[in-house]
Input
Amino acid sequence: MLALGISSMSQADEVTLNFADFGLDDSATLTDYKINDNLSISSTGNSRWVSSGPDFRLFAGGGFNISVKDATLTGVAITCTSGRGFASWSTVTVDSETTTDFTADTFSWTGSASESWAISAAAANINVRTQSITLTYTPKAVAETLTAEVLCKDMNVGDSESLPATGYDLNEYVNVNFLQGSHSATPTYRPSAEAFYIFNGQQVCVTANKGAKLEKIEISTAATNTFGYSGSVIADDLAQTYETDYTWVPCEWHGQAEQDVVFTNGGKTGNTRVTGIKVTYTTPGEGITVAKPEISQSDDNNSITITCETKGAKIYYTLDDSEPSDTTGTEYTEAFEITGPCTVKAIAILDGVASSVASLEAYLRIVESLSSFLSNASPEAALIECPVTAIETVGSYLMVKDDKGSFAMVRNINPDLTESLNVENGTTWANMTAQFDPYGDYGYIQPTALGEVSEGEPVAPKEVTVTTFECVPFEYVTLKGVAIEKEGYNSLLFKDTNGEILYGMNRFVVTLPDLTITDDKVKRYDVTGFASNDGEELWPVTFKEDPNAGIESAVADQETAIYFNLQGIRIAKPETEGVYIVVKGNKTEKHATR
Output
């Protein structure tokens, strides 16, 4: 028989095993050794007792396994020989979840294990020399059916006084209170009758706490002053039906209630004189447990609803991804509206016991603009409840604008909507239902349904230059008189009339005009497109040749000379040295000035 060194056994919450007290033979191991009704220990892998140590040695892969039954293991402390502790990459496994990488001569762990806990020495370690192990645990309580009673004269209430608002605690599981109900006053105590007088409409309320369940309630009364014929009993918000006429001497209730039982006096005249209460209840056994809240969002609006199956539990929530509590969260009382995408977290608390935390990534189901739709980035369909106007269709893409000045790109993958979206500039839908498409740097709109369509005013592009090209994403713009410098793969390089270079990304399937640049002329275009995500590029959609730009468009009479630089840009009469193009009448020639 092994000898154990056990401390605090009377509290059943901590046990210390000193391996030197075990009386083990050399090279002995431990196999499912029962420490008590809740815990047992085994040595695992390459491990054994060495009496010359004396210590229990864990070679590479060796360790201990603690089996837990009807309890929760909350702490483990292992004392090791100095310099012979656990090395890096040793492992701890808690209810099948493994963590690694720790180093400790005196090992300490805290947490929660309901089935098993194990430790294993690192494979690279020569050996770990353990001297003792201390286990901290909480046994599961056993459910019991108990009875508690009190006489009103022992409640220490003065003449014509009421109980405090918190009522009277029979014990930690049962509370009694006398309530105003539908009466104009709260029941009061009368020493002469050693009773609380309960008039018509006033109530007796018995409340269960800390997970207890009410099984039976007996209310004793003085003489024949009983509850009236039209009285009622409601247990956990459900009205109870009895075969009696509600004239009970004494008043008794049998059933099962997890929250409370409320007796209402129905006597039209007189009163009921309550002298005492006796309550039979069942303790919670394993302890009170609070259900994890459920968070849901309406499909039709931005409303969030939170519920909890545990009756009487209060719910607290946060919207910033922080952990909620009764001090850091907002108490939930009714459904509320969110104003933007957020992480809703909620916890339920009853009698100081908290549930696990529930979490929901919430998004707006109704948005007021295209920009708010893009910033919402909801994977679920959302209603854009403002008018949306089409600008330009390019392949499967459609540029749109709303009535608030926001721009966006529609990327359609639904063949049923292709014809409906292939429309002229100015076509307007009363609203649009869509999903967020994360494709690209900024995100697109992927429509699922279109509102009523009408013909609106075409959207005109905003005229910009290189120096003023500051636009919101997808804004509809035009660059005037742009010269095409060169053409490259999937891109074009533009110059404006000041010689500033502007890069434009040809991201769509477009029909380009003749881009040939000859020696004697420079073609210029008005380029209409959409600002990119960063506002520094242009996504060209259409090119329109500017008939008033370049040498070909020069107008001159026989006596007036007009000067151009070599790029075809008209200038004043040159006053500095250089080579210029001079147009006089129908004659064009190069001219050098010195």
Remarks:
- DSSP finds two helices and 51 strands in the chain.
- The radius of gyration is 42 Å.
